[in-house]
Amino acid sequence: MVAGIGNTQAHSLFISDLHLCSSRPAITAQFLEFLQHIASQAEALYILGDFFEYWAGDDDLAQHQTIIRALHTLVDKGTHTFFMHGNRDFLIGNDFAKAAGITLLEDPTLLEIYGKRILLSHGDALCTDDVAYQAFRQQVRNHDWQQAFLQQTLASRKAQIEALRKRSEEEKSGKQENIMDVNQDAVHALIRQFEYPQVLIHGHTHRPALHKLVVDGHEVERWVLGDWYDQGSCLRLDHSGLSNQLL
Ligand code: LP5
Ligand code: MN
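# manganese (II) ion complex -> structure
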C-alpha cells in the first residue's frame, strides 16, 4: 500500500481514465484490489470519467457484472461513490447507476468537501483548441442523437464505436500535443463561471500535475488526474489538502 493513502483520517479519493476493458485484465484486477483495500477506507470515491474503454449502452450491463458488483459492495460497506461521464462512457445511464449503487454527477459539478470549494469535470470540454473533437462532442452529447443511437442493436453500436476508435486514433496522431491539452482561457472562464472555487479537479489529458493559477486575483489549484495505463493513480483529499498518489 502507498504510504499515506491508507491512513485513517477522513478522506475522499478521485480517479479517472482507467479505460477498463476485457483486453487489459491486469487493470481490472488492480481496480478491484483498489476498491477492496484502498477505496473502502475512504468516505467517498469520485470517478471522473473514462472509467470504461467505451460504453455502448446500459443494455451491456451483463458484460461488466464483476465491476458492477464490486462497486456495489464498496457502496454497501459505506463509501459513497460518484460517477461523472467521460468522452468514452457518456452513455452510462440510470440502469448502470442503480446496478452499481453509484450516484451520477453532471459535468461540471461544484462541491464543498472538507471546507474547500471543489469543481469537478472530466476535462474534455476544456480542450477547446481541438475543434474537430468539440464538433464531434456537440453531436454525440445531444439527447436526440443519443436516443436514436441507443435504438440500434448493441452489436451495431459496438461496430460503429470500434470504427470511431480507429478514426480517433488516426486523427490524434495528426494533432499537435498542445491542442489536445486544456485551453487556458476555457479553464479561466469555467473558474469564473463557478465563482472561483479553490480547486479544479479533472482528468482526460493523461497529464497528471498540479497547476497553480491566479484567476482575476483568486488563487486556484488545478489538479490533473493520471490514467491507469501503466499503473493505478488517484488523488486523495483530506482536511490537510490534496495529494496525487501512484498505486
Ligand atoms: O478517447 P481519446 O482520449 O483517445 O480521444 C479523445 C477524442 N476521441 C474521442 C472518441 C472516443 O475515443 C471513441 C469512443 C467513444 C465511445 C462513445 C460511444 C458513443 C458514440 C458512438 C458514435 C459512433 O472522444 C479525440 C480527442 C482526444 O480525446 C484529445 O482530447 O482528440 O477526438 C477525436 O479524435 C475526434 C476526431 O477529431 C473527430 C472524429 C469525428 C468522427 C466523425 C464520425 C461520426 C460518427 C458518428 C457520430 C455521429
Ligand atoms: Mn477522456
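# post-check
The pocket of manganese (II) ion (ligand 2) is lined by residues 49-50, 86-87, 122, 124, 204 (CB under 6 Å).
The chain has one domain: 11-246.
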